[in-house]
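As a warm-up, study this chain.
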Amino acid sequence: MSSTKRRVELRSDTFTLPSPRMLEAMVAAELGDDVYGEDPTVNALEALAARLLGKEAACFMPSGTMTNLASIMTHCPRGSKVIVGEESDIYVYEAGGASVCGGVIYHPIPNNIDGTMDLDAIAAAFPPDSDDPQFALPALLCLENPQNHRGGKVLPAAYLREVTDFARENGLTVHMDGSRIFNAALAADVPVAELAGYADSVMFCLSKGLGAPVGSMAVGTGPFIRDVRRLRKMLGGGMRQAGVLAGAAIVALENRGRLAEDHQSARQLADGLEKIPGIAVDRAEPGINMVFFRVLSMDNPTFIAAAQAQGVALAELGHGQIRAVTHYGVEPEDIGYVLDVIRSILTDSTRRSHADHKPVLAG
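Now compare it with the structure written out below.
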């Protein structure tokens, strides 16, 4: 297949661009100074986020990393432990912020293939004697739903009930990294507030599947959000006329139903990949807007570069797999193009391999 200027961006749903309706909302947003609590558009966004997730209050934050950091620091005294999955974004991708900024110790727990953490492993994070001053005490359990590194797995409701009951019985607060919690709720066919109800606080991203240009939300109790807001200021996240961004975020939340289109595109892509020889798909059920797969006949850098040359942007993520993420901006016809590109790459690779191993006849 010849080179082309066509581009399909599948590395992440963070590459979405604001819709025309979002751009209109940004221009028309009523503004004030949010650090003073006087930006009406930010206030409306926070009220909407709290209502949708069934929490008392919410705080608009610049990023998911800052939201998770402020949440952990709010829940955890200095010198305490936060229990995290060793495959979690908080542990892998957020630069150790809770230790650097909050004096909080990460205690990583293995994530199973389905994204869960065994209760026995969580229990082992507790010291044998909580009165012994030599030991740091756990204060917080962080869950990630859906679990990104383990293939976009949605944590089952039965597990969420079990693990949060265990946490609370043992004096732990629960924070949920729900960067794509609306995708998880759609896949599980439950209200998003039901998933949020398993945690004392939740972070979710506005700038991933929801498609807003910037921002994440912290949601929880009123006192929790008050303290998060103070930490947001301390960490440098106080934004002034932030209603420019909040206007787009409100549109993203109001238009959250379109996430079903992304899930359908991901299913279409997974179905097509399963029919291509040399591709092994890690099928997540229920699935969200992610497809994880392996290329059996090529190394990942070579395959990714070949796809990039034909306008298909992919990335490796976790355990040697390639991740493709569908989102606003990826049309149904783009999926067919992506499948054609991948078929052509593997066909060309097989043809070259056969040519390289052609026997040489003696003269």
